[in-house]
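re: ur question from yesterday

yeah so i grabbed the chain u mentioned. its 284 aa long if i counted rite. heres the sequnce exactly as i have it in my notes:
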Amino acid sequence: MDERVPTQRVSRDVTARGVRMRVAEAGGEGQAPLILIHDFLVSHLDFDDIIDELAVDFHVISPVLPGFGDSEKPNPSRYSYGVETFAEAIADLIAAYGMGRACVLGHGLGGAVAITLAARYAELVTRLVVLDPLCYPHPLVRKLRVPLWPVMGGMLFKQLYGRGLFRRYFRDDVLSPGAVMPHARIDRFYDCFNAPSARESAHAVLRSMLDTRPVVARIARIRRPTLVVWGREDRMVPATFALKLSRDVPGARLTLMDTGHAPHVERPEELVSVVSEFFAGKRG
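ran it thru and got these structure tokens back, copy pasting raw so excuse formatting
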């Protein structure tokens, strides 16, 4: 692993599609831009274990999607939460920075956003990495199915989902057996979630995640060099989809890792090595 010290991280607010997004940055302004797009219920903090290493070679830009973290959480009645809208927000973000084009890495829900961005706005993406992306239809894990029950589900999610259940969600569903994520990080995710506007927004996003057909329809339209990374023990999105996705994206490459749903958390050094090599175009 490179021993150089990257530029200190900074945070700023950027308006995209009329909504304020909190954006974390690291690395030098003159470096190639790399956008990191996070998963459901988290924020840019989910990339804490890889952002500094990536910032050695890239200007890393890690936005917090609307409805999460410290970004604005507009009411679902005036903001259409979902993959398509998030992809438009990232396209706006790229324009706001004036970067022209960028490498893009998306995880889970963020992977679906990255797929949509690369398919709809190919001119904005140079290379694409997706980590265990939300793509093909599959049953949600139980902790995400219950909030979708008629009537009672929404109430449970918006009022009764507590810190302990939040921690168990990461322990039992996101991570592989025995893997850990710092409780302080999970608690920060929970604190940002634990407000009426945040729970309302998250519930709207969750409902949108049920229908992945628009994402699937975009997959074959990707024409940028693509790397698919998947944890073999993913309990959120089945690893059986990894080979299918790598075949459905023209020319895509595939890397399987001995992790659950979050390779960047469980094996950060290995992941940085794999994606940095890919972004540098050293394979194929």
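noticed a couple things. The longest strand covers residues 19-26. also The domain at 10-139+211-279 is CATH 3.40.50.1820 (Rossmann fold).
anyway ttyl
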